[in-house]
Amino acid sequence: MTTTYGTIPTSTPPGTTNLDYISRAKERLKSGFRTRRPWKEMFNLHSIGFPRSLGDAIGRARTNLAYFRVNYAVVVLLILFLSLLWHPISLIVFVAMMAAWLFLYFLRDEPFVVFGRTIDDRVVLITLSILTIVFLLLTHATANILISLLIGAVVVVVHCALRKTDDLSTDEESALFSGVASSSS
């Protein structure tokens, strides 16, 4: 019989290494970005046109937000990142919060558990969003951050309203809507 006195228990299960975690995280990141649509499809000039009515614009916005959601997130984050280049402390906080987002939201394999209670993804999303905004605002780049978020929102809304939805795949679109609907209920 072997004794294990004096050994330090590890948090990783036997047979797994940090490389396994990194490869799983890499796969999750890749699978998340697989839902990103091709930029050529997003910016297809033949699919840009003014909506006929406000109802048409809202319908387009809903469809395009569901279909291009990863692309829109990348665009807004890029605008925010570029606006923080002249505020190095804010940029460091932004990078740290992005790491928190990756590990606590995007790269998790299991549900998030705190004190034995499972935390819903929406709660994690809202909490991380609020913390990101609060920490960035504490770096005294408030006007810069708010203006860049406003610019990002305007870019997304304008694209959503002007991008026609006729050429988008309806199978993927209905799957996205059912995923969005089921995650919000």
Automatic annotation (TrEMBL):
Protein location: Membrane
Keyword DNA damage recorded: no
Transmembrane segment boundaries: 66-83, 119-139
Keywords of this entry: Membrane, Transmembrane, Transmembrane helix, Transport
The organism's place on the tree of life at top rank: Eukaryota
First-listed, main subcellular location of the protein, grouped into a coarse class: membrane
Membrane topology, record value: Multi-pass membrane protein
GO biological process: vesicle-mediated transport
Gene Ontology terms: cellular component: endoplasmic reticulum; Golgi apparatus; membrane
Family: Belongs to the PRA1 family.
Role played: May be involved in both secretory and endocytic intracellular trafficking in the endosomal/prevacuolar compartments.
Classification via PANTHER family: PRA1 FAMILY PROTEIN F2, PRENYLATED RAB ACCEPTOR 1-RELATED
Name used for this protein in its record: PRA1 family protein
Organism: Actinidia rufa
